[in-house]
Amino acid sequence: MRLYTLRMQRSPEDIQDELLVLRCQGGDQEAFHALVSRWEPRLQRLAVRLTADRDVARDLVQDAWLAIVRGLRRVDDPARFRVWTYRIVTNKCMDWLRRRQVRRDAARDLQAAATARNGDGGQPTSDIPEGIDRLYTGLRQLPDDQRAILSLHYLDGLGVSEIAAVFDLPTGTVKSRLYNARVRLRKTQESDHERSGQENH
What is the CATH number of domain 1-127? Predict the structure, then answer.
């Protein structure tokens, strides 16, 4: 009954995507170009939110499309295309973020060693752009996994069960992580608001 209800709630956009997927699986190149045209902007926005780097996001989405092309014929249920595609892009972004953290840790260790040798403190740097609204600023201050879950839920409209499929997690775990991420985001925004108020006085 629940599956039937979910299918009845499909929008015309969902149905169009499913038809395009079926045509792509049959080798229809025009359908594939239409699918890319419909989904490229969404995947780019997700990748930019997760990586905070437009150039990196563009490269990761291109890699994701290669994986999508290779695996599209194996998608048994076209209705799962959305979750499957978000999972590919999210995994690409999370892998890149982990590699970046490893590089940053190594660079920090080298900087610490150089500081110990030279007695030079150096200046901290930040790659978070200025002038972003409070929500996006707050999201970027969260740990990578919490930022990904909140982005998929609030900005891409995925439900708990869909996010669970993206991350291959139980729905109860996703609910718990969503709650913790909301709490942390709220605290971050409250802290930023208090700091801003103090600077204006």
Answer: 1.10.1740.10
Tell me which CATH code domain 130-201 carries: 1.10.10.10
Closest CA to 161 of 173, 148, 145, 150: 173
115-152 pLDDT, tens digit each: 444 444 444 334 433 433 566 777 878 888 888 999 89
Domain limits, CATH 1.10.1740.10, in the chain: 1-127
pLDDT digits (tens, 9 = 90+) for 30-78: 999 999 999 999 999 999 999 989 999 999 999 999 999 999 999 999 9
